Prior knowledge:
Blueprint: E1 2-6, E2 12-17, H1 23-36, H2 49-64, E3 68-75, E4 78-87, E5 98-105, H3 114-129, E6 135-141, H4 145-153, E7 157-168, E8 171-181
Parallel strand pairs: 5-6
Antiparallel strand pairs: 1-2, 2-3, 3-4, 4-5, 6-8, 7-8
Helix pairs in contact: 1-2
Amino acid sequence: MSKKFTSKSGKNIILRYVEKGDAGELCRYINELSKEDTFIRFSGETVEIKDEEEYLNKQIELFHNNDSVSIIAVYNNQIIAYSSVDRDFVNKKRSLHTASMGLSVSKEYREDGVGRKLMSSIISEAGKHISGLKLIKLTVFSINTRAKSLYESLGFVECGRMPGGILFHGEYIDEISMYLKV
Length: 182
């Protein structure tokens, strides 16, 4: 899969599946977001290239087994956004119809339509490639109202809240769980 689209600001963006050769650029991307200490699970940690290569190889293997889809947004040969939908194996056979979704966008590309286009694409691709998928779930920081609004506009519904479930910049904030029927 490879799709091109024009962002709100006129940038020509490519959406495509991750490939083995993306490890170095993905490592740069995640370390940039971690340093920013934004609304992702990384908070200042540095990811080593060997760890990113291992992660990427696992994602590609899961894709070939119809258990995951990972898509990147690329502009000027740089990764500017990443999303994955991964089958839930936690409860063995009982939850194989569910998958968890993650999304991140570089700071300078937020509010440019990249996140929406990437999310729409990954939801569609996950529905095609993850066999038996019925529900996509995600979590969002309660203070990340832009992301929550985006998710709701794409059909996600809030289904739970963990009070104080996230430590963010020294403050305990709620973690919101959401789902989408596929």
